[in-house]
TrEMBL record:
Main subcellular location of this protein, as a coarse class: membrane
Subcellular location(s) per record: Cell membrane
ABC transmembrane type-1 domain ranges (all copies): 79-365
Gene Ontology MF, one: ATP binding
Annotated stretches, region: Disordered: 1-23
TM stretches of this protein: 77-98, 216-238, 309-329
Protein source organism: Trichocoleus desertorum GB2-A4
Name of this chain's protein: ABC transporter ATP-binding protein/permease
Residue ranges constituting the ABC transporter domain according to the UniProt record: 402-643
Topology with respect to the bilayer: Multi-pass membrane protein
Keyword entries, A-Z: ATP-binding, Membrane, Nucleotide-binding, Transmembrane, Transmembrane helix
Gene3D superfamilies referenced in this protein's UniProt entry, alphabetically: ABC transporter type 1, transmembrane domain, P-loop containing nucleotide triphosphate hydrolases
Length: 649
């Protein structure tokens, strides 16, 4: 910028000088700007590269964390792994050295023909055989430890992930990025950590071998060792950079991978099969799946080709350095300055050094890939989850019931509030119905009441105390709830009812009582295995229920919480026949006499039985009162009621 200003002032000053002078000044100013830009570009390019490199190098820290993880999984196996790595790393150098001793002693023995020299040669031979046997043993030991650790570690990481998942809020499950992290973590839980450990130890082993080779070469020339190490640097940097790029690619494409997984699920899962078949969606879904694959494959191919090409070219540099040093050694041997044994040892060192070197390079590449996984795993495990802070087990005015005071709520990421300024009071023993068109906020209101979400503003009070101040467990014990999308567990009938109160999940008398209240008992008793009948089709002998029967099971589940004084039913009878519905509600009133109940329904025949009705529209409470009041008022409720009544005439 300074230069641009400078050049401008030169031009304006130039009005006093000759035109030529002005032109010269202008030209030199432009040249300076161009030079400056070049340096700046070069500098920022260099800075970017360094940043990329340091980001890539940062990933190495996960090697340490992986070792920690393995250590905490099983101390003994980790120690054994380290020991075998050490032995497998040091022995190749020792074997090369013993090889030299064998040749030298053979040459000496053939020249002297002395018995002692012959025994020396045979002794070295035996030593080499022992070392080779040890090496094979340590490699086998490594494989053994790794297979055992793989199983233990897979289990440990899976449990860590699942434990964390249990602490998550509902909002986390709805956050697609976070959900991505969790699915990726789960997908590769059993293989990646150990693979990283295997590669970290592999790298240590290769490095040890390279160091011992270097040590052997040191006798020959320190310069040669230095040149060989220097020649390895470009290949190392290139590998690190490409692995870093692969990492970034992996992160960017998370949404595509998720889409692929989703398409796989649609095509291959039993719950979607019926609709996919009937709508003939199969070919369309498969084409989409393949398109995503080809897009990803094109990116992968280009990176893989560049990585391979650069790896080969830069590898050639180290090969050239190797062979230059090798030629030097051969010349020294011809000149008789080193022994035949030395020559053979260096030959082994060079040959094995090359293989070890390329194996170390591929370990580094692999370590990066594994580190990506671990960085994702740790990001998931270390995500802070704010814990509910309330600890109260009772409110200041027991028997006050539930109060909503100016409650508003907006879902994270939404532009419109789902609820605005909702206020009402529900007293103990009262039955309240919520009505409103689709999307008016009925289910959201229930989610706030059950504390799956907290209001954006306003308060919800139970017994005069804000829900936020209640101990979460105590609060949840007081509420029995079924949502419209309740879970159809692939468990037995009894357990499907029992999950409503996990502390009594296996108590069959309770199942029976709850199933009776939920009106599921008659059809359960008709099944040959009764409460022991396996439900769903995932497991052998499983039986499928009708939609209405499932709803009765879910309703019974809500009745498992005998201590609950609040019952929340979100469209509990939508799949039931008309007779069952009437029966259920008459029955419902008698079994919930002292409980508060909140009921969401689109059927006015049900709604009219409530003591109090709340009408929602676009997130606002537009009317409330008894059925008779609201019909008389002649507003929205009366209109909807008469519409539905007309449909039955
Ligand atoms: N998890 C969510 N994330 C973001 N927005 C949501 C979420 N769930 C619901 N919404 C939005 O909040 C509004 C209210 O939804 P809600 O499910 O409470 O309606 P509802 O009255 O229960 O509808 P229905 O009668 O169809 O069950 C809708 O506009 C909906 O799009």
């Amino acid at each position: 910028m300074a230069l641009i200003q400078n050049s401008a002032s030169l031009n304006s000053d130039g009005s006093f000088a000759s035109q030529r002078q002005g032109k010269q000044c202008h030209q030199s100013g432009v040249r300076a700007i161009v030079e400056n830009m070049k340096y700046r570009n070069l500098y920022s390019g260099l800075q970017r590269r360094l940043q990329e490199l340091s980001q890539s190098l940062n990933l190495f820290q996960y090697g340490g964390r992986a070792v920690e993880l393995v250590w905490s999984t099983n101390h003994r196996l980790t120690l054994a792994l380290a020991l075998f790595t050490l032995v497998a790393g040091l022995l190749p150098g020792a074997i090369a050295y013993v090889g030299k001793l064998i040749i030298d002693s053979v040459v000496a023995a053939s020249q002297s023909q002395a018995v002692g020299d012959r025994w020396d040669a045979l002794g070295y031979l035996a030593l080499e055989a022992i070392a080779v046997a040890l090496l094979a043993g340590s490699k086998q030991g490594l494989t053994l430890c790794q297979s055992l650790l793989r199983v233990l570690l897979g289990q440990k990481v899976n449990v860590l992930i699942l434990k964390k998942a249990l602490t998550l809020d509902l909002a986390h499950f709805e956050d697609s990025e976070f959900y991505d992290k969790m699915t990726r973590a789960r997908r590769e839980a059993s293989s990646r950590p150990l693979s990283l450990v295997g590669r970290t130890f592999g790298l240590v082993q290769d490095s040890l071998a390279l160091i011992t080779y270097g040590g052997l070469l040191l006798n020959f020339s320190i310069g040669a060792v230095f040149v060989l190490m220097l020649a390895a640097v470009p290949a190392f940097i290139a590998e690190t950079r490409f692995a870093g790029q692969a990492f970034r690619l992996f992160r960017w494409r998370a949404p595509e991978t998720r889409e692929q997984t989703y398409l796989e699920t649609l095509i291959a899962r039993e719950d979607f099969a019926m609709e996919v078949k009937l709508f003939q969606l199969g070919p369309l879904l498969l084409t989409r799946y393949q398109e995503i694959f080809h897009r990803l494959y094109d990116e992968d191919r280009s990176l893989t080709i560049r990585r391979g090409l650069w790896g080969y070219l830069l590898g050639l540099l180290s090969t050239a350095a190797f062979y230059a040093a090798y030629t030097w050694i051969v010349i020294e041997a011809i000149a008789g300055r080193i022994s035949l044994g030395d020559l053979t040892m260096y030959l082994v060192v060079f040959r094995q050094g090359q293989t070890t070197f390329s194996s170390a390079l591929s370990s580094i590449g692999g370590m990066f890939e594994d580190s990506l996984y671990l960085s994702n795993l740790y990001e998931f495990l270390e995500q802070e989850i704010p814990q509910p802070f309330g600890a109260a087990t009772k409110g200041p005015t027991p028997g006050d019931g539930i109060r909503f005071e100016n409650v508003s709520f907006m879902y994270p990421g939404n532009a419109q509030p789902a609820l605005t300024n909702i206020s009402f009071h529900l007293k103990p023993g009262e039955k309240m119905a919520i009505v409103g068109e689709n999307g008016s906020g009925k289910t959201t209101l229930i989610k706030l009441l059950t504390r799956l979400y907290s209001p954006t503003s306003g308060r919800i009070l139970l017994d005069g105390l804000d829900l936020e101040a209640w101990d979460m467990e105590v609060l949840q014990r007081r509420i029995g709830v079924i949502f419209q999308n309740f879970v159809r567990y692939q468990f037995t009938v009894g357990e499907n009812v029992g999950v409503g109160d996990v502390e009594h999940i296996t108590e069959s008398p309770r199942w029976e009582e709850a199933a009776n209240k939920g009106m599921a008992l008659p059809f359960i008793e008709e099944m040959t295995e009764g409460f022991q009948t396996q439900l769903g089709k995932w497991f052998k002998g499983g039986r499928e229920l009708s939609g209405g029967q499932w709803q009765k099971i879910a309703l019974s589940r809500a009745f498992m919480r005998t201590g609950a004084d609040i019952l929340v039913l979100d469209e509990p009878t939508s799949a039931m026949d008309a007779e069952a519905e009437v029966q259920i509600f008459n029955h419902f009133r008698t079994v919930t006499q002292h409980q508060m109940a909140i009921l969401i329904s689109h059927r006015f025949s049900t709604v009219r039985m409530a003591d109090w009705i709340v009408v929602l529209s676009a997130g606002e409470l537009i009317e409330q009162g008894t059925h008779e009041d609201l019909v008389q008022a002649g507003k929205r409720y009366a209109h909807l009621f008469s519409l539905q009544a007309a449909g039955y005439q």
